[in-house]
Design brief:
By secondary structure, the chain is an alpha/beta fold. Helices cover 36% and strands 16% of the residues. It contains 13 helices and 15 strands. The chain has a six-stranded mixed sheet, with helices on both faces. Helix 1 crosses helix 8 and helix 5 crosses helix 6.
Length: 401
């Protein structure tokens, strides 16, 4: 396939970057942890209008930053809204807990919090730090929500009467389900945990009615979390406040149902209604007949770049870096096929969306997830990734280390 010599020639000799947030507080590099010098102070929300409102405080720990912007917007919406509640919030990136000063601040924040939320806590030494802080505070907290993480952290879940205290033990229904699923089809530990939580309704029939009710609250919270948008997270916080925070008065009609996108698919920022495509054929029908002519791309001669994306960045609207790369590639005359998954095994979406009628449609592939093709921080399935990439047999690069 012929390619113009100027197709990937840079148009500009310099790159200009725009900042959208204040520069984070500088932290001593010797104490700032291995991978970050950010500060939780940039993720703190303090309500200013408390007239007639009951305040509750949330503290959250996440692996990556995409949820922070979405949660901040959710808290701002609650604080400026009509409901008789206000929320104080502070967020920590998992790696920030390596900093001794930040860890002490984390302890202080959890000590007077109402709700704790954690997600993707899969680094053992940092999981131990979270357990150290949460354990003495768990009974006092109104709710503890731990989404896919190490088992010792997930055991701290507390949503009403529902817990995961027996997770991993021999007589635990949830533990047995996890053992069955976590290595199914070669998936990573994190993928197994995601499968567990997505299919938790199957084990509700084994729980007493009161625990089943609170388990549904946990699952609803997880659905909101998977949705990830500010609107989803606003409803999640309002639901938790209404059901578990003493004195919080929230009207039922203020809590919307979760709005979710499919767990995997082909996404494009210019697709009508931000829709997701289920097949490569459906995507190309729109892309080549509608988008390419509008973007000045010749679909017959253009190379096709496959992009592997994280669903959480799309959910939380933290996709500007995706949009920027897509726009740049298309401005240089290339077509793109942007696939994503809600799990951490991207070999399936690669097989499903980078092929059409057994023919590879991507000329090269860029992984923008920050993870391996199969697996996450806790473990990777290298043989499965090698098999998928060998079959694809196209240039492949991980652009986000």
């Amino acid at each position: 396939r012929s390619v113009s010599k100027n197709l990937f020639k840079p148009k500009f000799s310099q790159l200009f970057m725009a900042t959208t947030e204040k520069a984070p507080m500088k932290i001593d590099s010797m104490a700032g942890g291995m991978f970050t010098n950010s500060s939780p102070d940039t993720k703190r929300v303090i309500p200013t209008n408390m007239a007639g409102k009951t305040k509750f405080k949330i503290v959250y720990v996440v692996l990556e930053s995409q949820y922070q912007s979405s949660l901040t917007k959710a808290c701002d919406a609650i604080n400026s809204g009509k409901e008789a509640v206000a929320v104080e919030a502070v967020g920590y990136l998992l790696e920030e807990l390596r900093n001794p000063a930040v860890f002490e601040q984390f302890k202080a924040d959890v000590a007077d919090a109402n709700i704790f939320i954690g997600s993707l806590i899969f680094v053992q030494e940092l999981a131990d730090k979270v357990v150290e802080v949460l354990t003495p505070n768990r009974d006092r907290l109104d709710a503890v929500l731990i989404f896919p993480s190490m088992p010792e952290v997930m055991r701290l879940n507390k949503v009403g009467s529902f817990t995961m205290a027996n997770l991993g033990q021999s007589k635990s229904v949830i533990g047995e389900f996890m053992k069955k699923k976590k290595k199914e089809n070669g998936s990573s530990f994190e993928e197994g945990m995601l499968k567990l939580l997505r299919t938790l309704p199957k084990v509700l029939k084994f729980l007493p009615s009161d625990k089943a009710k609170d388990a549904r609250s946990f699952m609803m919270s997880f659905q909101y979390w998977l949705g990830g948008s500010p609107q989803n997270l606003e409803s999640m916080l309002l639901m938790l406040a209404k059901d578990f925070v003493v004195g919080a008065n929230v009207s039922a009609n203020a809590i919307a149902e979760p709005v979710l996108i499919p767990d995997k698919g082909i996404w494009h920022p210019m697709a009508p209604g931000n829709s997701v495509f289920d097949t490569n054929e459906d995507y190309m029908e729109w892309y080549e007949k509608v988008h390419c002519p509008a973007a000045g791309i010749n679909p017959k001669t253009a190379v096709t770049i496959g992009l592997i994306l994280q669903k959480s960045h799309i959910n939380t609207k933290d996709e500007c870096h995706y949009v920027a790369l897509i726009s740049e590639l298309e401005a240089r005359g290339a077509k793109v096929v942007c696939i994503y998954s809600g799990g951490l095994d991207f070999s399936g979406p690669v097989e499903e969306y980078f092929y059409s009628k057994s023919k590879v449609v991507a000329d090269s592939v860029i992984n923008l997830t920050g993870f391996a093709l199969v697996g996450g921080p806790a473990s990777q399935d290298h043989p499965k990734a090698v098999a998928a990439l060998t079959k694809l047999n196209k240039p492949y690069i991980c652009a986000v280390p």
